[in-house]
Amino acid sequence: MKQVDAIEENSLGALPTEVKARTFVVIPAYNEGPALAEVVAEVRRHFDHVVVVDDGSRDNTHAVALDCARYVLKHLINRGQGAAIQTGIEFALIRGADFVVTFDADGQHRVEDIPALLAPILNGDVDIALGSRFLGSATDLPATRRLVLKAGVWFTRIFNGVRLTDAHNGLRAFSRKAAQRIHIRQDRMAHASEIIDLIRETELPFVEVPVTIRYTEYSLAKGQSARGALRIAFHYLVGKMVD
Ligand SMILES: Nc1nc2c(ncn2[C@@H]2O[C@H](COP(=O)(O)OP(=O)(O)OP(=O)(O)O)[C@@H](O)[C@H]2O)c(=O)[nH]1
Ligand SMILES: [Mg+2]
Known about the structure:
Blueprint: E1 2-3, H1 17-21, E2 23-29, H2 33-44, E3 50-55, H3 61-68, E4 71-75, H4 81-94, E5 99-102, H5 114-122, E6 128-139, H6 143-160, E7 172-175, H7 176-181, H8 191-202, E8 206-214, H9 217-222, H10 226-241
Helix pairs in contact: 2-3
Magnesium ion binds next to loops.
């Protein structure tokens, strides 16, 4: 695995318009009505191809997405983040995307980090860039959440056989080739571990890139619990056994 240095913050201006036009940003969203409009607006200031996948939300996510996103897809039932990302990636590929970025709907990611994720792909060095909050920063990350995330890193070392600094970060970028080869079958949160397996199996070159993840009262109230993390590990291991 290669590692790249943080590239200058706010280098969105330096990213060629032509690259922005070939990039699709996939935003999986489940009951994100309160946060979604601002997130999409921030991304759309720089990238027009924003795909919101409403994952069977019960709130006004769908209506908000129709108001602000370029493309809105909908799961009729809640299937989970993995399934929502896979739906978005498939759509982006059909629409001719050359680069696909996955970006959470809860306001935790920064659009300013996208150029740093795309840079090593544009240079032809790798096909996949994974955001790492532990190479970058995590603002207001509670200690218990840090512990769970670090446990996830060790889990990945043991069960996926891959050394990463941050194994469960929703901010990622894929080349078209990588997006075509990654088929997520873990519908829920275990897809993050599954993606790492797929990276290992496909031998696609990848890199971790420093990013900032923001923790807010809103994101913490909605985010994953320690018990949830155990459930994710269980789903992943069961998925591996039935493979
Ligand atoms: N929890 C959850 N999120 C979903 C689902 N489907 C899509 N998502 C979206 O997936 C993204 C990440 O969800 P989070 O629950 O915040 O997971 P996370 O960011 O990995 O975990 P935290 O660090 O605890 O916030 C958000 O944009 C959600 O709206 C789902 O079924 N459950
Ligand atoms: Mg979150």
